[in-house]
Amino acid sequence: MSITQQYLLDSYRAAQHDERTPPAPGRQDWQIVREVRDYGRFRAVVEERPAHGRFRAALAGFVARAGLSRGSAVRTPRPHH
Question: Fewer CB atoms inside 10 Å of the end CB: C or N, the chain?
Answer without folding.
Answer: C
